[in-house]
């Protein structure tokens, strides 16, 4: 995959744990998280896990596209 984009809170776990698993299996694709949380601690945890950016819901299409363009260079 060229870019990973997924929620910070998944039905079966957390996005930071998933990204850690993907990194351990060799994935180096840039990653963007999205979440409804506005808590600084949550955003810091996601960034520390390796997400390049944390977007807060609700998301607009231009916001997602801008983040993807930055992540993909």
Task: Give your account of this protein's structure.
Helices cover 44% and strands 23% of the residues. It has 3 helices and 5 strands; from the N terminus they run βββαβαβα.
SSE topology sketch:
Elements lengths: L3 E4 L1 E2 L2 E2 H10 L6 E5 L4 H10 L3 E4 L4 H12 L1
Parallel strand pairs: 1-4, 4-5
Antiparallel strand pairs: 2-3
Quick take:
With 73 residues, the protein is an alpha/beta fold. The chain has helices spanning 15-24, 40-49, 61-72, and strands at residues 4-7, 9-10, 13-14, 31-35, 53-56. The mean pLDDT is 96.
- Order of strands in the sheet with most strands: 1-4-5
Shape: globular
Strand content: 15-25%
Radius of gyration: 12 Å
Distance between the termini: 15 Å
Tally of extended strands? 5
Number of helical stretches of at least 4 residues: 3
Order of helices and strands: EEEHEHEH
Low-confidence blocks of residues: none
Taking all residues together, what is the mean pLDDT? Answer: 96
The helix content is 40-55%
Largest sheet: 3 strands, parallel
Q: Helix- and strand-based class?
A: alpha/beta
Keywords:
73 residues, alpha/beta, three-stranded parallel sheet
